[in-house]
Amino acid sequence: MTGVDEAERNQQDNADTLVRNRENTRTRLLKAGRKLFFSRDYTAISVDMIAREAGFTRAAFYLHFTGKDALVAAMMIAESYKTDPLFERFNHMATTPETIESFVRAFVHSGRDLPAGRLFHIVALQSDAARDAFQENRRRLMAILGDGFPAFRPARDDSHEEQRRAARATLAIVMLEQLALRDAGLASPALLEEMILEMRDRLVSLSRIYRGD
């Protein structure tokens, strides 16, 4: 190996180490933020607290995030992909009442496995960056679902009927999110069952409107 080759290899090794170190720092900051956000009120947590929890300085934090809002937005994006398999599982199935009901049940019960959803809903009311990330994720999931469930696709034209259908689709997703967040907290199983069936009927209706039935 020539001196030039060795110098190039060392340069590449240094670059790879720098990337790994940056990724490790970012991961530790996200982990520290998650721990603090789940244990305290969002407004009471500072950048200094997050950096200290992660074992870094304030300056190190700002090399990765512009502020705690940006960190929460990054957390939202990472967490949001956990629901992709659920949406992808249903996006190519026939949109029968039975399939739609299965999707609603699966989505609602997924709230038990994603406790971060409650935090993100609260933070989205206090942070512009978090709200933007939340809304972008909602659009992304609707696009995935719309591949096999046309009622969730964007409006096909500017007609009142299409705009209304698209707005109702967005509202349905918002209602599903809220129902998923409250699943474990509903005192009455009968009430949860009633709400699941109502949501199923709402989505069936949307599907019929899209087809023009």
From TrEMBL:
Residue segments, region Disordered: 1-20
GO terms for MF: DNA-binding transcription factor activity; transcription cis-regulatory region binding
Annotated transmembrane regions: none
Domain HTH tetR-type: 23-83
Compositionally skewed regions (Basic and acidic residues) per UniProt: 1-11
Residue stretches in coiled coil: none
Alphabetized UniProt keyword annotations: DNA-binding, Plasmid, Transcription, Transcription regulation
DNA-binding residues (ranges): 46-65
Pfam families the UniProt entry points to: TetR_N
SUPFAM superfamilies referenced in this protein's UniProt entry, alphabetically: Homeodomain-like
Keyword Transcription regulation in annotation: yes
PANTHER family: HTH-TYPE TRANSCRIPTIONAL REGULATOR BETI, HTH-TYPE TRANSCRIPTIONAL REGULATOR RUTR
Name by which UniProt lists this protein: TetR/AcrR family transcriptional regulator
Biological source species: Sphingomonas paeninsulae
The organism's taxonomic lineage, starting at the top: Bacteria, Pseudomonadati, Pseudomonadota, Alphaproteobacteria, Sphingomonadales
